[in-house]
Amino acid sequence: MLAELSIKNFAIIDDLSVRFSDGLTAITGETGAGKSILINAVNLLLGARATPKMVRTGAKEAELEALFYVDSDSSAARFIAEQGDVPEDGLMVRRVISANNRHRVYINGRLSTMTALGEITASLASISGQHAHQGLLKEDMHLLVLDQFAGLVPLREKAEDLFNQTSEAVARLKKLEASQEQDAKERDLLYFQKDEIEKAAIQPDEDEDLEAEKKRLRNAEMLQQTLSGAVEVLYGGEGAVVDQLGMILKGMHQAADADPTLESFTAILEDKMFGLEDLASELRVHLDTIQMDDQRLEEVEDRLDFLSRLKRKYGGSLEAVEAFYRDIGKKLDKLQSASGDVQEARNLVNDLGGQLAKTVKDLSAKRAKASAGFAKAVSKELQSLGMGKTLFEVDLSFYPAPRNGDGPLCVDGHGVEASGMDRAEFMIAPNVGEELRPLKDIASGGELSRVVLALKVILAKTDAVKTVIFDEVDAGIGGAVADAVGEKLMALSSSHQVICITHLPQIARFAGRHLNIAKRVSGGRTQSMLTPLDGPARVDEIARMLAGGNITETSRQHALELLESTVN
C-alpha cells in the first residue's frame, strides 16, 4: 500500500507531505485546487514520463517521493531482498525532475533506471482516471480486461512472445528466400568462372615466358643470322678467332720456355681460348633451338591474348587470377551455407509456428470459456451500481486471415496478432428493450464510470495490485447511484487500499479518511495544501460539497446526517 507521499516544487505544489492509511481515503477540494497534480505525481512515481514543464516556476528541480509497504511474497519484496534491504521496511521511490531535462530515479536510496522503476512498481498501484474511461472504449483493452479476469495474462504474454519470435523468423525467412534467386545466379556465374580458370591450366609466370618466346619467334631470322655469324667468326670459318688464338698460344708456349715469367700470361690466354671454344659450342647448341615457326608464333600470340582477357576479367595479373580462383571456392562455400540457412530458417518458422498455433488456440478456447462468467460478474456488479436491468456480453470474434491465407501467422483460417487470434468487444444494453450495442456507441459518461468501477472491482480479485486510485470515478453520476458507487468503493477497500478523488459528498462520506486539497496565495505565489479532515472540519467540507460552496446551518445539518448514516 501507499504509506507516504512527499511532493516538492511540483506544478503549483511547493512542499506537501501526506500519510495514507489502508481502507478508503477520499480526497476532495474545489476544481483547480490540485487534485489532478496528486494523480500526476503518483503516476510519475509509478514510472510515467516526466517533462521539465512539471517543475514549479522558479525552481531548478522537483522532488517526488513515496513509501510503499509491500507483501512479503510480492515481486517488489523479492527485489528489495535482492538489493540487501529488508522488505518489511518498505519500498522508497524517489524521482527528481530537473528543469534542464536531466531527471533521476532512486529506489531505496540507490540511483536506478526508468526500466527498473516500471518493473518494480507494476504491481504496486493502479490509477483509474479519465484515460481509463477513454481506454475502455478501445477494443484491444476489452480483450486485455477479459484476460486479466480469467488469469490468462501469462498465457497471453507467452503468445505475444511466440508471435514476436515467429514474426521475426518469418521476416528473416522471406529475406533469405528473396536472396535465393540472386544466389542461384551468382552460383551459376561462379561455377562458370571456376570452370573457365580451371580449363585455362595456367602455369606460374606463363605470360612472361610466352612473351619471351614470342619475341624470339618474331626475331628468329635475325637471331639465326647473328648466332651463325658469331659461331663462324669464333670457331668455324677460315681465320676463326679460336684458330688465331691457337697460333698465338703456340708462340706463347715457346716464349715461356725462354722467359718463364710469361707462363702466367700463357695460362690466361689458354683459358680464354678454351672459354671461346665453349662459347662457340653453346651458341651452336642455342642456334639449333631457334626456328622460324609461324604456326607456333600464332599459337603463342593466341595464348597470350587468352591470358590477357583472363587478367582483365579477374584482376590484372595471373597472380590475381589465381587469387580470384581461391575466392570462388570461399564464395561457393558461403552460398552453400546460405542455402543451409534457408532450410534452418524454414525449420525454425515451422517450429515456432506450431508452438504459436497451439498457444493461441488454447488461449482462444479459454477466453471463450471465461467470457460468459466475466459477463455475468460484470452484470452483477452493475446491478449493485444502479444498473440492474443492464445486459452485458462479450462479443468474441477472430481476426481475418491474411491475404495469402496461409503461413505460421494464420491458424485455422484466422489471422494471428500479438494478443492471439481473438478480438473482443464489450456489448451493453443499459435499458430494457434495447439491443446490445458496442460500449463505445451507447454508454453515457455516468454509465461508463460505473462500468470502469465494476471492472476494477472484478479485477481486484485477481489483480496483485494492492492500491487502487480512482480519479473522477463520479463523472456523470449522482443521487442514489453515487451512494451505490460509494458503497462499492467501501466494499473494495476491505481488501485493497482505495484512494478516491471525488466531487460527490455521497461518495466522500464512505471514506475512513478524508483529505481536503485547497489553493492559497502566499508571498505572491499560489500553493496547494492538503489537510486531513475530521470532526467539524469534515462536516464543513461535506456541507460545501452539498451546497456548492455556500455553507449554511441547513447544509451542515444535512452533512452531519449524511456522515452519521454511513456505516464504515
Automatic annotation (TrEMBL):
Listed InterPro entries: DNA_recomb/repair_RecN, P-loop_NTPase, RecF/RecN/SMC_N
CDD domains assigned: ABC_RecN
SUPFAM superfamilies: P-loop containing nucleoside triphosphate hydrolases
Domain RecF/RecN/SMC N-terminal: 2-519
A GO molecular-function annotation: ATP binding
GO cellular component: bacterial nucleoid
BP terms from Gene Ontology: DNA recombination; DNA repair; SOS response
Keywords: ATP-binding, DNA damage, DNA repair, Nucleotide-binding
Described function: May be involved in recombinational repair of damaged DNA.
Family from the record: Belongs to the RecN family.
Name of protein: DNA repair protein RecN
